[in-house]
Amino acid sequence: MLELIVISTLNGVLFGMLLFLLSSGLTVIFSMMGVLNFAHASFYMLGAFFGYQLTRWIGFWPALVIAPLLVGAIGMAVERYGLRNTHKHGHVAELLLTFGLAFAIEEIVSMIWGKSPMDYRVPQALDFSAFTIFSTNYPAYKMFMLAVSVLIFIALLIVLKRTRVGLIVQAALTHPSMVAHLGHNVGRVFMLVFGVGCALAGVAGVIAGPALVTQSDMAGLLGPILFVVIVFGGLGSLPGAFIASLVIGLVQTFAVALNGSLASLFGPLDPSFNATVLADIWNVTIAQIAPILPYVLLVLILIFRPMGLMGARET
User: Residue 236 in contact with residue 170, Cβ under 8 Å?
Assistant: First the structure.
């Protein structure tokens, strides 16, 4: 039992930090620009495929730097030539643009790389066991993923709360005219913020690609849970996204690890109930309902605290 708790906690924290790394860029974009980017998971997918291709050509470590820069550049182009033009038509137009962009990116990726999973492997320098706990070897690459996620969280907090750049970006959201009169190019600020947010998704894709499956539908697999994270944590709140990522990562990981059911707790039902729906529900295990638990949390948080755990916007 202790082994189950320790290993599940480690895996839950790791999965949670991966969710945070993916959601941090979307949180930054929303908190600074008020844009809910439905194509954010697609930029994560682009990061994974760019990382895979560049790793084949020049190695993993250069790919870890170049791939997010490429994704960020694409994000800036989307903001400059897409979102900036639709912004005057309101948030619905922005949502529709990013929604359509998500499908376009998926189809382009399928055309270039196909629909089969890519052979994206863990770099040799990190392909070893970091430590052994309860006879289970824990990969060094997973610890690397955890370290990158924590460093990005700390760096974002420092930049947004403690630096002049962060103050200018936040001021540009609420008082764009004043910031423009002070000599700052507000359009460029928004373009850079969107690019940085997309680049963070690209980082998540590059480092998650070898650990997860890199294929053309990977955005659809993680995209829905990404929005659960940012709504649960509070739209626009970076600390909220951090806490929500850990909570959802731990809940889902422990649920998958547990194989209990009502039948295992209270015993089987009377044979006369065997053909009823109640009998089916009685035998459902926690692991079987694990995929829906994040969405149950989403419903509960929207009912009892619509702004999320640490929400900063009434949107």
Answer: no
| pTM of this structure | 0.86
Q: Which of 30, 46, 31 lies closest to 95 in space, CA to CA? A: 30
What is the Cα–Cα distance from 52 to 67, expressed in whole angstroms? 9
Task: For 71-98, write each residue's pLDDT tens digit.
Answer: 999 999 999 998 888 877 877 888 889 9
Beta bridge partners of 129: 139
In 3-state terms the chain splits into helix, strand, coil percentages (rounded to 5) of: 75, 5, 20
Which run of H or of E encompasses 93? helix 91-113
Q: Tell me, what amino acid is at 197?
A: G
Question: Measured between alpha carbons, how far is 245 from 17 in angstroms, rounded to an integer?
Answer: 6
H or E segment and range at residue 131: strand 129-133
Calculate helix-pair angle for 2-33, 40-58, nearest 10 degrees.
Answer: 110
- Is the CB of residue 242 less than 8 Å from the CB of residue 157? no
